[in-house]
Design a protein that fits this description.
The protein has helices spanning 237-245, 400-414, 423-446, and strands spanning 2-9, 16-19, 25-29, 33-48, 53-69, 84-102, 108-122, 133-136, 138-141, 164-166, 171-187, 190-201, 204-217, 222-233, 253-264, 270-286, 291-310, 313-329, 348-349, 359-360, 372-382, 387-397, 451-466, 469-482, 485-487, 503-505, 509-518. It has 519 residues and is mainly beta. The protein folds into two domains: 1-187, no CATH class; 311-519, no CATH class. It has a 21-stranded mixed β-sheet that branches. Strands 2-3 form a two-stranded antiparallel sheet. A hairpin with a 2-residue loop joins strand 23 (451-466) and strand 24. The protein is globular and about 85 Å long.
Length: 519
């Protein structure tokens, strides 16, 4: 059993002044706070049937509460329900599974079974159903007549009645699943694996996710794994439920994948791993009204990692390369009013601007993702393993897929026929284009699309105070060296210039921690 509680504020939001009984300003309050609490209890039991067969049962009960406070009515305490905005709910889940484990010989084994999931989303802990509020495109509440967030419509940040859905005491989703994993030894050095899961939910049609893999052991040091698989999943539960409530046909997000990996330990003290894969992803999202197919993305990925261990030294290098091969947006969404943050490769959107622009497809990379990622790890132990030094570095190379947005804007401005504009429109266009040019120069001056890097280090000392007590002291520094910024994630700009020129600071952070373990 485990209980956790956490909360945080959004420090980059300005604070608001609280009001006293005379409507006079007092001290300032954080503009947005988030609170989460969770409790989970689980139990496993294995029934031994025969020497070769057993049944493993598992039962898990958990509940998580999520509340977002946005104090816009500061005549009330900050944690008053009148200062809740968009989210106040608990998600309660009961999960039971029974797996039959059968191994009749060294050449064949099988695990198969059943899983039951019952998820109930309701009001926060200890609150009546009237305190339920979930923003999922629409406002999900208990009732128009009794919802706590509709009692006083003169308050700020209330539910939009014209875009709300009643769900009474909450949302319940039940899913039944069949699980299977089997292994068969074809030859002495080859094993064939087949696995699948079939999920049947009361808010979705069935989902079938199979996997077939061949593991070839060439010798004691070299292993090759080849696999082909498909994974299907529902959309996030609340969106899937609303789609089902509106009698919309179910759409599943689907990932088809082919993968080959190579592992080699024949070099002394060294491990090598090379992995290549092809993915075809059919992405689905909730538009606020229904589940929609968004885009089909084909991509190629390559990964390399190597680890060297000798005495008290360990060095690791990892590099990942990902390249989109084809990105196709749903043609039905290309109306000029929809934008996406996956890629600008297939795009059609009219942003808000004084002089109309049409943003059309540009490039073939991913937005908000670098083509190459390199990571380095160094660990050295001293004083008979009691003192450990650790250094890590990450480098993100080439955000060209993000820079495609700037090229797309440039092309849109170049395509405007100035001769078709009136004199006043030409003046407005000139100012609009000048603002864009300044924005582009600033971005290129900052080299925001080249690379992003940081280096971290730590020193850990282990001390055995007595036979039953261990103490660990850790001193660490994050971002000793860094590119000083991490560019802000863009969901696709909607104005006359890209809103890309935003950065999250990466300050140098120094910390000291102590951990005591009692045996």
């Amino acid at each position: 059993m485990r209980y956790t509680q956490s909360g945080r504020t959004h420090g980059f939001n300005e604070k608001n002044y609280k009001l006293d009984g005379d409507e006079e300003q007092t001290h300032q309050a954080n503009y947005r706070n988030i609170q989460t609490r969770s409790i989970i209890a689980s139990s496993d039991y294995r029934f031994t049937l025969t020497e070769n067969a057993s049944v493993l049962t598992s039962l898990t009960l958990d509940s998580q509460e999520y509340i977002r406070y946005r104090p816009e009515n500061l005549q009330f305490p900050e944690d008053h329900f009148s200062n809740i905005r968009q989210y106040a709910f608990s998600q309660n889940r009961a999960n039971f599974s029974a797996l039959y484990d059968y191994k009749p010989s060294n050449t064949f084994s099988l695990v198969t079974g059943y899983e039951y999931s019952n998820i109930f989303v309701r009001a926060p802990w200890g609150k009546s159903s009237d305190h339920l509020w979930i923003k999922e495109g629409v406002d999900i509440i208990s009732s128009f007549e009794t919802s706590a967030y509709l009692k006083d419509m003169s308050l700020n940040g209330r539910v939009n009645v014209d875009n709300a859905v009643e769900v009474g005491s909450g949302i319940r989703v039940v899913t039944h699943s069949h699980l299977l994993e089997s292994k068969y030894s074809l030859f002495e050095n080859q094993e064939l694996f087949y696995a699948h899961r079939i999920d049947s939910s009361d808010v979705s049609s069935s989902m079938f996710s199979p996997r077939l893999a061949l593991v070839s052991t060439l010798d004691s040091d070299v292993t090759i794994v080849s696999s082909i698989q498909r994974a299907q999943r529902m959309m996030p539960l609340r969106a899937q439920y609303l789609s089902h409530l509106a009698d919309n046909s179910s759409k599943h997000e689907t990932l088809d994948s082919i993968e080959v990996s190579y592992s080699d330990t024949q070099f002394e003290n060294t491990t090598l791993n090379i992995r290549g894969y092809y993915n075809d992803v059919s992405a689905v999202g909730y538009t606020g009204e229904s589940l929609e197919f968004l885009t089909d993305t084909e991509l190629l990925g390559l990964e390399f990692s190597s680890t060297y261990k000798h005495d008290n030294l360990e060095l690791t290098f990892n590099h990942a390369y990902i390249k989109p091969l084809n990105i196709r947006m749903n043609p039905d969404l290309k109306t000029g009013t929809n934008r996406n943050n996956i890629s600008f490769a297939d795009y059609y959107y009219y942003p808000r601007s004084d002089i109309p622009l049409l943003l059309e497809s540009e490039g073939n990379g991913f937005n908000n993702w670098s083509t190459n990622i390199s990571k380095f790890l160094y660990t050295q132990s001293f004083l008979n393993q009691r003192l450990k030094a650790h250094v890590s570095a990450q480098i993100y190379w080439d955000f060209d897929g993000s820079y495609d947005e700037m090229r797309m804007y440039q092309k849109a401005y170049d395509n405007v026929d100035i001769n078709e504009l009136s004199t006043s429109e030409q003046l407005a266009f000139s100012q609009q284009y000048q603002d864009f040019s300044v924005e582009r120069q600033l971005l290129e001056k900052e080299k925001a699309y080249d690379l992003d890097f940081n280096v971290n280090a730590s020193l850990t000392y282990y001390w055995s105070a007595n036979p039953t007590t261990d103490v660990q002291f850790k001193f660490y520094v994050e971002n000793i060296l860094n590119s000083s910024y991490r560019y802000y994630v863009s969901t696709g700009s909607s104005g006359s210039i890209p809103n890309r020129f935003q950065y999250l600071d990466k300050p140098v952070m120094v910390g000291l921690s102590m951990q005591v373990n009692f045996k």
